[in-house]
Design goal:
Length: 539
């Protein structure tokens, strides 16, 4: 995220998955890890069960990972900044901060202290709903350990305060010296395959590959030389949410969408579908005819991962070679070949012969990938960037001696409530997420009969006390209404969710919960909010 970049570089995991085996404490916030990242969750569970590691989970829901926790903090939705500031307030008050680390490795500590003074246990308990004694215990466990890892996911980034949430995690890690050594760090768990690799390769509006800013004239010149052009823009482009807004205004007339399904995954997705329909020209490149592809003027059928060779960069910054397993299906083509043909037809010839040629160019123009060559990947299980040359073994953890900017910068954040909170008309707070048997918008998993058998339809999780008030039983059908629309689905009654909070998934096109969510975004990272106020009535 943009808010983390100044200190931590890219927003990637600072540490490695294997280091979880030796961690003493895990602080998991905004991550339903067992459902979304089951292999990573298995590492944590093993460390907890076999090595007595402590597990702190901050999540409104009592998820499977929360049930294993030493401490589970079921905090009020959107109160993450207050919670994190409250933990830091206690740590400083008790003298548990890493004084020498702060003195030699960081700056702006006094400003952080000034802000944290306002986050007393009493105030934080009132905002978050967490007991003061529980806050103190969590702070003590995290701060006093020599090897504490923070792990987070979209549960804290997909908020209007997403940048503030991530910066607060960074502040907590630096305050306790838990950055720059094994089994520590701030570790975002990526939501989809190769999200990390896409960001690394410049699939962001303000950077070239390796997070090299488009505004830097020297870097602009390097890419102009590499690509044989002399007119690259030095202006940052638009984010996904900005593009949708521009499409609504008519400032964007056409879109080319690859491997993404915004007709379902965008917040207020009815608005997204309206924008896509109103474009003059929409091209979708995908392996299936998704809800978005059905709106396209042209669909370019791509090949799946099994039909092509290339590299993926996983959540721990590890670049791995993926080999072709089956022949390319008739009528399809690997993404890189489609892009080359479209580019050539559009007037800029692209003449790569293979993914090996493309990786060679990546090595030339991306300093952090310079040593991650095809020959090395072909004879290993992957290399972690930064890997500046072919003699380098890769980097298992970041910031050993210094941060990307030199000194780590404490950037204190203030708590602000979510953009839409429950009221008399809409008394429930809706949150969304995934279940283990389905993935994202269901494009692939809903075509697998075994997975579809396990989780065939959307449901609405609700606390038993709320269900009794509304005279509902398990399976009762309800109408869920927000300021943007209404849906009907069955209720799943469970103690795993607090009162006045409901939960559903966004896997199902026939009952897309994102039709209800709010179109509000983080002002810095432009990541959308995916919680909103709703009313519920029995049908």
């Amino acid at each position: 995220m943009a808010g983390l970049a100044a200190t931590f570089g890219s927003g990637a995991m600072t540490n490695s998955i294997g280091e979880m085996e030796d961690a003493e404490v895990f602080f998991v916030i905004g991550s339903n890890t067992t459902e979304q990242h089951p292999l990573i969750a298995s590492r944590m569970i093993r460390a907890v069960r076999e090595k007595n590691a402590k597990l702190i989970v901050a999540d409104p829901r009592d998820t499977k990972i929360a049930k294993l926790a030493t401490i589970h903090m079921s905090h009020t939705i959107g109160s993450d900044v207050a919670l994190l500031n409250g933990l830091m307030h206690i740590i400083i008050k008790e003298g548990w901060e890493a004084s020498e680390y702060i003195k030699t490795r960081t700056e702006n500590f006094e400003k952080l202290k000034e802000v944290l003074e306002r986050y007393t246990p009493e105030r934080v308990s009132e905002i978050t709903g967490i007991d003061k004694a529980v806050l103190r215990s969590a702070a003590e466990i995290y701060a006093k350990s020599k090897k504490s890892m923070i792990l987070y996911a979209m549960g804290i980034t997909q908020h209007v305060a997403g940048t503030d949430n991530v910066k607060s995690c960074a502040n907590l890690a630096m305050l306790t010296g838990h950055v720059g050594s094994p089994s520590t760090g701030v570790n975002p768990l990526r939501g989809q395959s190769n999200v990390q690799g896409a960001c690394d390769m410049g699939a962001l509006p303000n950077v070239y590959s390796g997070y090299q800013p488009v505004t830097d004239q020297r870097i602009k010149g390097l890419f102009e030389e590499a690509w044989g052009v002399n007119d690259l823009s030095d202006k940052a482009g638009l984010t996904l949410t900005d593009m949708m807004d521009a499409g609504q205004r008519g400032d964007i007339k056409a879109m080319y969408i690859m491997g993404e399904n915004p007709a379902m995954s965008d917040p207020d997705s009815k608005h997204a579908r309206k924008v896509l329909r109103n474009l003059d020209f929409l091209v979708v490149q995908d392996i299936f005819l998704t809800e978005t592809a059905k709106l396209a003027n042209v669909v370019l059928p791509a090949s799946s991962f099994a039909e092509k060779m290339g590299t993926y960069t996983n959540t721990e910054r590890r670049v791995q070679l993926s080999r072709q397993a089956i022949p390319v299906l008739d009528g399809t083509m690997p993404d890189w070949q489609i892009i080359c043909k479209v580019s050539s037809k559009a007037g800029y010839p692209m003449s790569y012969d293979s993914p090996v040629d493309i990786l060679d160019e990546i090595n030339r123009v991306t300093p952090s990938y310079r040593g991650i060559t095809f020959d090395r990947l072909n004879n290993s299980w992957g290399l972690q960037w930064p890997c500046p040359d072919e003699k380098h073994d890769g980097t298992p953890f970041l910031h050993k001696d210094k941060f990307a900017r030199g000194l780590g910068f404490f950037d204190a954040r203030e708590y602000a409530p979510p953009p839409e909170v429950p009221d008399e008309e809409f008394p429930f707070q809706l949150i969304t997420g995934r279940v283990g048997f389905q993935f994202h918008t269901g494009t692939m998993t809903r075509k697998v009969s075994i997975l579809e058998r396990e989780e065939p339809k959307a449901f609405l999780e609700m606390n038993p006390k709320d269900a009794r008030r509304l005279k509902l039983i398990n399976g009762s059908k309800v109408a869920i209404e927000s300021r943007r629309g209404e849906l009907y689905m069955p209720v799943k009654i469970t103690n795993d969710i607090p009162e006045k909070v409901v939960f559903s998934t966004f896997h199902y096109s026939d009952n897309n919960i994102n039709d209800l969510t709010i179109n509000a975004v983080d002002p810095v990272a432009k990541i959308p909010e995916f919680s909103c106020a709703v009313s519920i009535r029995r049908v």
